[in-house]
Amino acid sequence: MTQAVPPILSITPSRALVDEKFQVLVENLPPGCPVTLHSLHHSEDKDDWEAYGHYVSDHRGVVSVTEDLSFGGTYTGKEPMGLLWSMRPVPGSREGLRLRKINVCTPMLVNISVHSGHEDFRDRTPLASALAERWYMAPGVKRIDINKQGVQGTLFIPPGPGPFPTLLDMWGGGVGLLEYRSALLASRGYVSFSLDYLRSEHLSADVEFKYFETAFNIIRNHPQVIPDRVGILGISLGSMVAFNLTAYSTIIKPRCIVCISSNHYHPPGTTLKAGFKILSKHFHKAHFDENNYMSWRSFALDLIADPSNNVEVGRINCPMLLVNGCDDQNWPTVETAEEVSDALRHGSQTRGLGSTYGPRHPCLQAVY
Questions:
Q1: pLDDT in tens, the chain (368 residues)
Q2: Rounded to an integer, what distance in angstroms lies between the CA atom of residue 38 and that of residue 111?
Q3: Beta-sheet strands, E only, within 136-244
Q4: Is 346 in the same domain as 247?
Q5: N or C: which terminus of the chain carries fewer CB neighbours within 10 A?
Q6: Residue 254 maps to which CATH number?
Q7: How far does Cα 293 stand from its chain's mean position?
Q8: Residue 322 bridge partners (DSSP)
Q9: Residue 361's Cα: distance from chain center in Å?
Q10: What is the tally of structural domains in the chain?
Q11: Residue 313 resides in a domain
């Protein structure tokens, strides 16, 4: 494609938090011109991630990712943020990658470019490009390393006088300490404590549930925290901890809990390692799909069918939000959420799938 006036690609805003929408606009194209919009991010793990959509310019020679349809690529249809949410490893990347932000004090840099045509666009020099900065930590947010009373993690405090509502933030198994969710929560007005509970020194010490109680009390007693507005946020293994703490702790009384990829498995004893030992006896039952990806879902269904393996969720007496993916193969999260929903709505103390329940729980929402 040859033209006298070069195309112009603009991103508005070019610097924003990761949960803010942006507009990508290409101007000065010939009318009816097929082009590909491509986004590329080089991660801190040294891997390249991309997304792209195929567009056709309108009668003015304009492509607006916000308003126009993508006719193919990593996403189709009108998807204003498709260049971000549909990112995947570039062809030829190593397997088992996860896109994550490690250093929240620096932005996620995304290069967005426009290429002529739809086929073999990577082989063509971009017609125009622009850089977007996507931040997890807003200006003025304080990041504080915590190593107190045996508890480790990172505390994020929003700008302003406070005090603020607060969340104890717990990630799932196998990822270690990640800060980007807590940094974003603080950017939106919540004190958030990203708790480190899966590093080797903790598991080797066989971390007890008292560790989480201590962490909860540390943030509840912080001068920038509203003491009676402290919630618990957990994903996967973190949701298991959230269920256990809320149901059984005599110290922790959270304002609410949010469980993503719900897991209400109840490990025997008082330590996480004890629960892992029980789970490890079932690993040989794991299912492998056609891509050789391992799924725990099938044996976990059998595990939680036994009422003695589950948290007595009827003991929980605070608002709860359950967020689950319907195709989760790591754990039967939908079945877990359905059982928890039924138990809480009817106030049952009974555990196990297929139980009969009694009076309604005051506040519950499940999202699939």
A1: 555 689 999 999 999 999 999 999 999 999 999 999 999 999 999 999 999 999 999 999 999 999 999 999 999 999 999 999 999 999 999 988 889 899 999 999 999 999 999 998 988 899 999 999 999 999 999 999 999 999 999 999 999 998 999 999 999 876 678 999 999 999 999 999 999 987 655 555 567 888 999 999 999 999 999 999 999 999 988 999 999 999 999 888 899 999 999 888 887 776 777 777 777 777 778 888 777 777 888 888 888 888 888 899 888 889 999 999 888 888 888 888 888 887 777 755 434 433 333 344 556 666 65
A2: 8
A3: 142-148, 151-157, 164-170, 191-196, 225-235
A4: yes
A5: C
A6: 3.40.50.1820
A7: 21
A8: 259, 366
A9: 27
A10: 2
A11: yes
| 48 and 159, same domain (yes or no) | no
- Amino acid identity, position 12: T
- The identity of residue 3, as a single letter, is Q
* pTM recorded for the entire structure: 0.87
Element (H, E) at 211: helix 210-220
Q: Which residue has the tokens 């971390």?
A: 207
- Supply the range of the domain harboring residue 198: 142-367
1 within some domain: no
